[in-house]
UniProtKB/TrEMBL annotation:
InterPro entries: AA_adenyl_dom, ACP-like_sf, AMP-bd_C, AMP-bd_C_sf, AMP-binding_CS, AMP-dep_synth/lig_dom, PKS_PP-bd, PP-bd_ACP
Keyword set, alphabetical order: Phosphopantetheine, Phosphoprotein
Domain of life where this protein originates: Bacteria
Span list, region Disordered: 358-379
One Pfam family from the record: PP-binding
Name the UniProt record assigns to this protein: Amino acid adenylation domain-containing protein
Occurrences of domain Carrier (ranges): 744-819
Keyword Transmembrane in annotation: no
Length: 825
């Protein structure tokens, strides 16, 4: 074997070529066969003549395009076995969609002949050179230039080059590929070959497609038939209209602070006049550095009524980062809380106003500017409304700039689709820097509902949030999944509720665990659970999926379908519609898109591209950077980020599937999986009063998942860490700890405490350096431990002693000190 040749040929190959519809393993045994008569042999010879390639090379080239389309990749490897050759030779095809057909034929021939000229390597040698796990074949799909019987691979295409027409037969393993999918592969090959025969050799590859015109129309048109006429409006105008209808209705509440619609509109109007007096109007930004309160809602509405756009600057941001964001905005005014005025003034030279109850301090944002002050200028629907800063791949935040019109479209879609009205109340807990807050404020107010503003202290206390849901008339929850998962461990403590005020739950911004919807329905009297997706660049949400029955086979909750006036496309590397079932790149189009990135025209041009399918001049598509695929009914399944694909040793890991299996384990409330340092790690949140048995959990995982998807380490947590936006904070998940050596307890107190820990934690032995929480301890078991320490040793130690002294040796020292203190007394 020429190791240098094959190492170079396979360099950078990510994983074995796998079709989107292919099963890892199935119950159906045996092999199947489909056949068809395809293009004329004379036509194939003529098509290959300019490149000097025979018909079998033309078919092989077409087959590579079919495999690429169905695998959702531009880099495929499959085997080629000419007649009279015992073992297939691997052929790697890396597609360039701008390449003319003739040049593609010539390139493929050169690569194939070079490979056939090399000594045939074994499958094990090829796998090792490609960096695949032992026992993983580099390819299991083969083209055979003969029509003999017998199948050794999952998929074998056999050619019969007899006159007058090519005959092809596809043999397939039934446990891997369905008969319908096999027939479709052959039909796609036939369509492509006939297209190659009739088209010029100068035709670029991106002009060839395996889709029929009917399939293409279904994907591009029927599944995106979302057009609904909306009257042009601005966001704040929806709230003003509601205030005129129901002036005395409650609009915002936080504790004793309450505002009716009339009071809210009046206060926001005063702020708008104050901003206008400072020269603020359409085209300007007003920075908001505010804690959550009823005054926050006044500030949001007031900025829009002034015709300006608001820009949230989180109070928790370090001063340097806040200064950098403010510098990009050139905002003439910053609005903050009364006690933060001094700190706000240190962030730069601009006018600082404050909101809250008036106390005579200068700079109150609602001060009357006087009769001669200019009146606020009204914004138009296409004017900028807000900018949200999102994390950038370079470390520099991106300011996503939205106009009014797409947000109004989203608000009216939600309120119409889900019947939002005066009886609804949202628990507002999302940061202003997370665009879910835009609907929570303006969408709910446009419907005549009310906003219950959660305090920062309440948001940090999952039990308190659950009690608010249970004790107050909250009808609507809207958050990232992790924010609601924080409450999940406490559902069992107060039991399921047959009836509850909560009627609607929106989950978005991250993966929705497959176990969460049913858990929520049980806990809150069966509210409707809706998974939503999209991007900040596409006006909050632009797709949705009502989560009803959760299929046990799902790895994650589906993305769903586009909302009104939004369009979704799953495209291949040539910006063509991807085959249904095949992964592709996700693009969003329609009337939901942002204006672009503030102050970054190059980034805007890179991510917002001309829409090749749009009927309106100037239509754009937003390149999300996500991977997705279509189901047969048009439902979109989200597959993850393009730049964050999880692979280990040549295997693509479906983290959602791992998390679903973990969450199904005994004693587990919820779970997360991720890859750290080339290891798959599972994090499980213990259910209240229960303790997951790691050994049992591993055994169950081994029964449900292939070996490469079973985490090498499992970590038990009390709760999942979340960001201020309510998303799962993956960076805050603790790194798994290496096992500590066993150190036998030495002193009498250490031995006594070790026995108590062993009883409480249910472990066989405890060493001096063992950690209470690493052994499965949690807050509920601390109470039991304190009671046993009191009973056995007749000494009181505070519960915080375990939190501050987590190893057996450290905690024993605290207990021993307490005993000595009592003896001295």
């Amino acid at each position: 074997m020429n190791q240098e040749f094959w190492t170079d040929r396979l360099a950078g190959f990510a994983e074995p070529t796998r079709l989107g519809s292919e099963r890892a393993a199935g119950d159906e045994a045996g092999n199947g066969t489909v056949e068809c008569e395809s293009a004329s042999l004379a036509g194939l010879k003529q098509a290959g003549a300019p490149a000097g390639v025979p018909p079998e090379h033309v078919v092989t080239a077409a087959w590579s395009l079919v495999l690429a389309a169905h695998a959702g990749t531009s880099d495929v490897v499959f085997g080629v076995r000419p007649a009279g050759v015992d073992e297939p030779t691997p052929l790697r095809v890396r597609l360039r969609y701008d390449l003319p057909l003739t040049a593609f034929f010539a390139s493929l021939r050169a690569h194939l002949e070079a490979g056939l000229a090399q000594p045939a390597p074994t499958e094990a040698e090829l796998s090792a050179l490609a960096g695949l796990a032992e026992g993983t074949a580099l390819f299991d799909k083969v083209v055979r230039w003969d029509h003999d019987t017998g199948i050794r691979h999952a998929l074998e295409l056999r050619l019969d080059l007899g006159e007058p027409n090519l005959r092809v037969r596809l043999d397939y393993a039934r446990d891997r590929i369905s008969s319908a999918d096999a027939r479709r592969l052959l039909d796609d090959l036939d369509r492509l070959l006939n297209e190659m025969v009739v088209r010029s050799g100068a035709t670029a590859l991106h002009e060839f497609t395996v889709l029929s015109p009917e399939e293409e129309n279904r994907i591009l048109r029927r599944w995106n038939d979302t057009a609904v006429r909306r009257d042009p409006a601005c966001i704040h105008e929806l709230v003003e209209a509601q205030a005129a209808r129901t002036p005395d209705a409650l609009a915002v509440v936080q504790g004793e602070d309450r505002l009716t619609y009339a009071e809210l509109d009046d206060a926001a109007g005063k702020l708008a006049r104050r901003l206008a007096a400072s020269g603020v109007g359409p085209g300007d930004f007003v920075a908001l550095r505010l804690r959550r309160s009823v005054h926050t809602v006044v500030a949001l509405l007031g900025v829009l009524k002034a015709g300006a756009a608001y820009a949230p600057i989180e109070p928790s941001l370090p001063p340097e980062r806040a200064q950098a964001l403010l510098a990009t905005l050139e905002a003439p005014v910053l609005i903050t809380d009364r006690d933060q005025v001094a700190a706000a003034r240190e962030l730069g030279e601009r006018e600082v106003l404050w909101v809250g109850e008036p106390d005579g301090t200068p700079g109150w944002a609602l001060d009357d500017p006087g009769p001669g002050a200019p009146r606020p200028r009204r914004a138009q629907p296409d004017d900028q409304a807000y900018v949200i800063f999102t994390s950038g791949s370079t470390g520099t935040p991106k300011g996503v700039l939205l106009s009014h019109a797409p947000v109004v479209n989203l608000i009216e879609w939600v309120n119409t689709t889900y019947g939002m009205g005066p009886a609804d109340r949202v628990l507002f807990l999302t940061s202003l820097g997370f665009d879910l807050s835009v609907y929570d404020v303006f969408g709910v107010l446009a419907a005549g509902g009310s906003i219950r503003v959660a305090t920062d202290e309440e948001i940090r206390d999952p039990r308190r949030l659950l009690s608010i849901l249970d004790e107050e008339p909250i009808t609507f929850w809207d958050s990232a999944p992790a924010a609601l998962q924080q409450l999940e461990p406490f559902f069992a403590l107060r039991g399921p509720r047959a009836e509850h005020s909560l009627r609607l739950v929106f989950l978005s911004g991250d993966w929705v665990p497959v176990t969460l919807p049913d858990s929520v329905r049980t806990a809150f009297g069966a509210p409707r659970v809706i998974a939503l997706g999209g991007a900040t660049e596409a006006a909050i949400w632009s797709n949705f999926f009502p989560v009803e029955r959760v299929d046990p086979g799902w790895a994650s909750i589906p993305y769903g379908r586009p909302i009104d006036n939004a369009r979704y496309y799953v495209l291949d590397g040539g910006l063509r519609p991807a085959v249904v079932g095949a992964p592709g790149d996700l693009y969003i189009g329609g009337d939901c898109l942002a204006l672009g990135y503030h102050g970054d025209p190059a980034k805007t041009a890179d991510k917002f591209i001309p829409d090749p399918f749009g009927d309106v001049p100037g239509a754009r598509l937003y390149a999300t950077g996500d991977r997705a695929k279509y189901w047969a009914d048009g439902t979109i399944e989200f597959l993850g980020r393009q730049d964050d694909q999880v692979k280990l040793r040549g295997f693509r890991i479906e983290l959602g599937e791992v998390e679903s299996a973990l969450a199904a384990g005994p004693g587990v409330a919820s779970a997360v999986a991720l890859v750290l340092d080339e290891q798959l790690v599972g994090y499980v949140v213990r259910a209240p009063g229960e303790e997951p048995d790691i050994a049992v959990l591993r055994e169950q995982l081994a029964q449900r998942l292939p070996a490469y998807m079973v985490p090498s380490q499992l970590v038990v947590l009390d709760a999942l860490p979340v960001t201020p936006n309510g998303k799962l904070d993956r960076r805050a998940l603790p790194a798994p700890q290496p096992p500590v050596p066993y150190l036998e307890p030495g002193t009498p107190v250490e031995k006594a405490i070790a026995d108590l820990w062993s009883e409480v934690l249910g472990v066989e032995r405890v060493g001096v350096v063992d950690n209470f929480f690493d052994l499965g301890g949690h807050s509920l078991l601390i109470t039991q431990l304190m009671a046993r320490v009191k009973a056995a040793l007749e000494v009181d130690v505070p519960m915080t002693a375990v939190l501050d002294n987590q190893t057996l040796g450290e905690f024993s020292a605290v207990v021993e000190a307490a005993l000595l203190e009592e003896l001295d007394a």
